[in-house]
Amino acid sequence: MALLRRYRLALDVGSTSIGWAVLRLASDTNTPTAIMKAGVRIFPDGRNPKDGTSLAVTRREARSARRRRDRLLKRKNRMLRQLIELGFFPEAVEDRKELERLNPYELRARGLDEAITPAEFARALFHINQRRGFKSNRKTDKNENESGALKTAIKHVKEKIENNEARTIGEYLYKRMQNAETVRARLRQTRVTQDNGRDKIEKNYDLYIDRSMIEDEFEQLWQAQEKWNPVLFNESNKTLLKNTLLFQRNLRPVKPGRCTLLPELERAPAALPSTQLFRIYQEVNNLRYLNEKFDLVPLSKQQRDSIVEELNKNQKRTFEQIRKKLGFSGSIRFNIEDDKRQDLNGNKTASILAKKNFFGSNWFTFPENKQDEIVQKLLAEEDEANLIEWLINNTGVDEATAESLSSVTLPDGYGSLSFEAIGRILPHLKEEVITYDKAVLAAGFEHHSMLDASRDGEVHDELPYYGIPLERHVGFGSGEPEDSLEKRYGRIANPTVHIGLNQIRLVVNALIKKYGHPTEVVVEVARDLKQSKEQKDRERKQQAENQKNNIRRREQIAGILGISEERVSRSDIQKMILWEELAYDPVDRKCPYSGVQISASMLFTPEVEIEHILPYSRTLDNGMNNKTLCMRQANRYKANKTPHEAFGAQEIAGFNYDEIILRSKGMKKEKAYRFLPDGYGLWLKTDKDFLARALNDTRYLSKLTREYIKLICPNTWVIPGQMTARLRSQFGLNDVLGLHGEKNRNDHRHHAVDA
User: Fold this and answer.
1) How do strand 716-720 and strand 187-193 relate by DSSP bridges?
2) 312-360 per-position pLDDT tens digit
3) Which residues of 331-352 are buried (b: 16+ CB within 10 A; e: fewer)?
4) Each residue's pLDDT tens digit, 543-589
5) Parallel/antiparallel/unpaired status of strands 333-334 and 288-290
6) Residue 574 in contact with residue 557, Cβ under 8 Å?
7) For residue 752, which of 24, 22, 6, 26 has the smallest C-alpha distance?
8) Three-state SS for 74?
9) What are φ and ψ of residue 249, in 5° steps?
10) I need a surface site. Which of 91, 304, 363, 692 has the fewest CB within 10 A?
């Protein structure tokens, strides 16, 4: 087909589809005069259909398991090869097989007092190499629920050894074996009722070994055998074998995202005091108060500084406290104060580190650069012993305080700017009470609106790989020319958006090849039309209520699990929400299918699972209305079926469908109907709409699409999805693919109709 001289390209971008239409334009008015072509491209969203997680997670976990296994096998083979080459192990396989009959624990104990043959020493060392103990990594272990129990068990074993019950961990384990006690670590969980009446799950181990115990045993065994066989047990052999036994590679650091203003630099951690202070100044400088004449008045520099001082020493300050600090009457209101927001966040890092068991008030005596240095060390150092030593030498704390600091939990995540960009902007925010956008310009940066990928005005012949022009939105790549584009330039972490942008590139470049460059491009974005004041008020009130309830739930969960509130996960809160939805009275909260009562203490055990009422594979509905809690066994019986298909269409011992329906009536109606025999049919008529996750992915994708498409057509604009829906209804286009004016989502061609 010949190239069109003037046409509009319309795109309906979704999380798993792209609808497109080519509309011929009049030469003088740019009015669409004909639909030349329309189509749809369908593609997977890169997520697990069961739970919506990225497919990369499954692949990464499997890859990690393979690598751990490979490293173990390589270490065993390396140790075996060295023991043979150095003359400890016999070369013949049959002779080594005979050594397997020896008790390695006995050899580890006997080798401390008497000479054992080189082959027996090798048998003991090979056994130690297979179970060489736990080496703590602060960055990966601090969020593990079992880490406290694990450290307690290690400390208990060390005390036993120090109290002369044994000289080494090997001798200690041999004595346990002689007493018919276990020599392997086993996690035990017990339910304990606290003083407040809540149940708490306590986790403990009978014993646990750490790497330092193994290192100490190797030293003592080698020293003992060196007396009887100094030729074989020499310093060179010791260094070689010890390195093989104890070596552990450092974790590969996770690179943060790119700085918005300096994309070649990494974003600064949110826990850095300078990042916290930057956020505080940015927010307080935006603060306005409504005076008696209903004018919005900015703060004076003195007022601003007094609020910043308060926020810098506290985790948060309510607007009531701020009014009192400024001497305002209770009738004064601030511009960002509403039902949902009643306070300003302070310096969370300072509020944690200034506690009595950490630095106390001394924290505020450190200069800002020293505070940043300390926090950077707390965030980056993997080895606990090295961190404790550094804290003692560089901050003046004692060993007990340094040990407490080594397990401190600081705010997670990163800001949007690098340490260097913050360093340039923050002085301007401090100097005057100006807003962030003005401080950015004062610091010599361009305004954010000028950071668009198409800001240079160049019109590309076709869309390049998105990671090149959208550099500030993607992670860091390798930079190696021989690598693939994705690996070289980096990619967006969200799998749906990554796949979507690549598919847009494929579709748009194919259309350019066939029709030439479009004169105009219009993209549908997934966002709501402007809401009325009443709608906004209702939504704000609901959000405030949800926020309040989640704070309460987080406190409850932390009490039940015996962990800090920061370590309560999103899935924990989701379990608590679903548990509360089972029934108003906790006594009546039972598994909908089996009728087994689910107590608060059971809630966070593997026995209780989150389950999709209507199968996710058929509905793609991952919303809370399609989720409930149930016992693990019931979930296995239900499998990938509706409640009626699993328990109503056939009889299964221990499950009664009539009782299931009765229990479901205690839930809200949006959830209860899904348990009915025609629940799936009712869902098809009422609730089969865009999922919350898909909608959020589409919003992000649509935003980047506009910036991306402007590279080939500067005249690009967007319209909200609800506007498309209204026009489609008014034009009667729903009847094109469905009856009675209803949009038929089962027919993918509706994306082309939207376009």
Assistant:
1) unpaired
2) 989 899 999 999 998 888 778 888 887 667 889 999 999 999 999 899 9
3) ebebeebbebeeebbbbbbbbb
4) 778 888 888 898 888 888 888 887 888 888 999 999 998 888 888 89
5) antiparallel
6) no
7) 22
8) helix
9) -70, 150
10) 91
Q: Which one-letter amino acid corresponds to residue 331?
A: S
What are the residues whose beta carbons fall under 8 Å from the beta carbon of 732, sequence distance 6 or more?
Answer: 741
Crossing angle (nearest 10°) for helices 301-313 and 319-326: 130
Residue pointed to by tokens 């065994």:
221
Burial class of residue 418 (count of CB atoms within 10 Å of its CB; 0-12, 13-18, 19+): buried
Distance CA 207, CA 182 (A): 9
Helices within 181-234 (DSSP H only): 211-226
* Dihedral angle computed from the Cα positions of residues 623, 629, 635 and 639, in that order, rounded to the nearest 10 degrees: -20
CA dihedral 731, 734, 735, 740 (to 10 degrees): -110
Residue 523's nearest CA partner among 723, 726, 737 is: 723
pLDDT in tens, 603-659: 888 889 999 999 887 776 778 888 999 999 899 888 889 999 889 888 888 889 989
Q: Which of 426, 422, 423, 448 is nearest to 437 (CA)?
A: 448
In degrees, rounded to 5, the angle at the alpha carbon of residue 623 between the alpha carbons of residues 622 and 628 is 90
Beta bridge mates, 47: 54
Strand 32-42 versus strand 17-25 pairing type: antiparallel
Q: Which two tokens stand for residue 338?
A: 């509403």
Could you tell me if residue 221 is left (phi over 0), alpha (psi between -120 and 50 degrees) or otherwise beta?
alpha
The secondary structure of 441-481, three-state, reads HHCCCCCHHHCCCCCCCCCCCCCCCCCCCCHHHCCCCCCCC
What string of DSSP letters covers 392-442? HHHH---HHHHHHHTT--PPPSB-SS-HHHHHHHHHHHHHS---HHHHHHH
Domains of the chain: 1-77+456-526+694-755 (3.30.420.10), 87-231 (no CATH), 273-440 (no CATH), 569-686 (no CATH)
Buried b / exposed e along 446-484 (16+ C-beta atoms within 10 A): eeeeeeebbeeeeeeeebbbbbbbbbbbbebbeeeeeee
